[in-house]
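Researcher: Next entry in the queue.
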Amino acid sequence: MLEGKELLEKAKLLSKKSEDEIAKGCGYVGPSGRVLRKSFYRALIEAKGYKIANGQGRNGNRASRGRQTEFKTKVHGNGNLLIGHAYTKKLGLKPGKQFKIDLKKESNTIYLIPLN
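Model: Structure for this entry, 116 residues:
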């Protein structure tokens, strides 16, 4: 991810493109391919010389770092149940790791059993 003068120069070169294309071109893309707009805009503001208060999030006492792990999820409209990157990272799981899914219907419990 570009910062400072390099970010401003690259953004200027890409100025005829869409905001997402500029952010991508400057390296503001997450592991899933999602454009990190907030990080990109924050970096642009800082590159312009403006100070952004650190440690002030929505509730005023912690840094806002996007989505926070809450250890809860929901079944989506399409029936999928997403675990998410924050949880797999916390467990040190790498892409391609396979699991057996074991269901305990009486307790509505889902177990993921690693396959070696």
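Model: The chain has two domains: 1-66, 72-116.
Researcher: Noted, moving on.
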